[in-house]
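lol ok so funny story. i was supposed to be doing the assay writeup but got distracted and ended up predicting the structure for this chain instead. priorities right. anyway since i did it might as well share w the group, maybe its usefull for someone
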Amino acid sequence: MGSERGNMKHLIVPSLLVIFLTQSLALMNISDSHPLDGSVGTQSIHVNAFRGMVNIRDNNVLSEWTGVLDYKNALFVAKLYSKMACVLAKMDQAAFPTLDDIKKALDHQALKRYPPTCSLTYTVLPSRVKNLAQYVMAIKDMCREVPTYFAQQQKEGTALAIDPDSCFEVQLLSFMGLSICGEIPGL
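and the output, tada:
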């Protein structure tokens, strides 16, 4: 009987450890794989931390746009409805809000339209994206029916020889403002 108790102790401790680990891993997966939806002002935001993606839809009649932040591939794409074009750029992840920042902001729903804490400027390049198939499905689907152009982030402090009237202003929650500047070829 004493050896059975010893064997039971050896079985119970690992079993409890497996149960607790399984539950904590399940909780971790739930928080990362279930998308978080929210809206702030005219923006609807969908965060999928598991895929490292944020989808944004801004229905502001003066500056309607749809965007994808692809954190896994460090890409930012915006479909600018007034220009009937998409713009694709490398995302400076140090300047953009993190997925956690966006999730926390949507969890609290406490955002107001404050001036952006960060502002970046992108210049549209004349080169057009020829093969959207190489990008994630969200980008392919969003830009499939309109021309897509590469854009390049301007270094802070560089003077732009661009007509300010050619800039399209994008607000990402209260975190940042983006200016997408330059003429879109062919339009």
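Confidence is low (pLDDT under 50) at residues 11-35, 110-115. The beta strands are 36-40, 43-48, 53-58, 65-70, 75-80, 85-90, 118-128, 148-153, 168-172, 176-181.
back to the writeup now i swear
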